[in-house]
Amino acid sequence: MQDIRQKIKKSIKEILLFLFQYEMPIESIQVESTKKEEHGDYTTNIALYMSKICKEKPMDLGKKILNEMEKKENIFKKIEIVNPGFINFFLEADGWGTLLNFKDDDEATLNKIHLKKLLKGYNIKSKLTLNEIESAQYVHSRICSIIKIFEEEGISVQGSQDTMNYEVDHFEKRMIKKIIDYPCVIKQAIACEKPDEMITYMLELSGLFYQFHERTFFRKLDKNRLSVTLNIIDHIRIMIKEILNNVEIDAPNKM
Known about the structure:
The protein contains 11 helices and 4 strands, in the order H-E-E-H-H-E-E-H-H-H-H-H-H-H-H.
């Protein structure tokens, strides 16, 4: 799974080294999801943070970083610098699809093994209410049902992954951002020895699906939008099933 925030951080680290011969720890570079659509998809305050160190005004430093970033990356529709020195990143429409077409790399696979070992020392299941368990289970079963219905009509998730050049809307972006946060959530849970963060993540995923399900009439979606939707919700299903299984809770296909 491609972590776009990590990709931006890595590029910023390389740019600072190239422009100023400054070796900055990647964990010190802040890249966050934006709260407002007009601010793009991701934002960083690196120009403000590095202004004194580089002896440049934040806006001037931001422009230099922006110029180098545009040379390095082609996944952004636009990169902008705004006062007092924030750099905002707008992903290309087809960039969202590539984020979901993933296979676990070696680090992600190893982290999942470490997470299972960590979970053995905690009785996470006992901390969950029956309502929380059933809520997550329902999301899994409902997604299974939706996908099965369309697969029986010849529309499969596997066939949908090449149509992600569709312009996703703001809420779909929120879901994709949450999905691609999964490896980081696992890594953080291991580093802090707080496996209950996985439960918080699962419940947030479930909450997003409930909101999306309420506002979506699947039968009224055109082919491209339906393909995008099936791809997104199938990833939510995968994450929820994996987390439930890790805490020894069944993820039923039917409820």
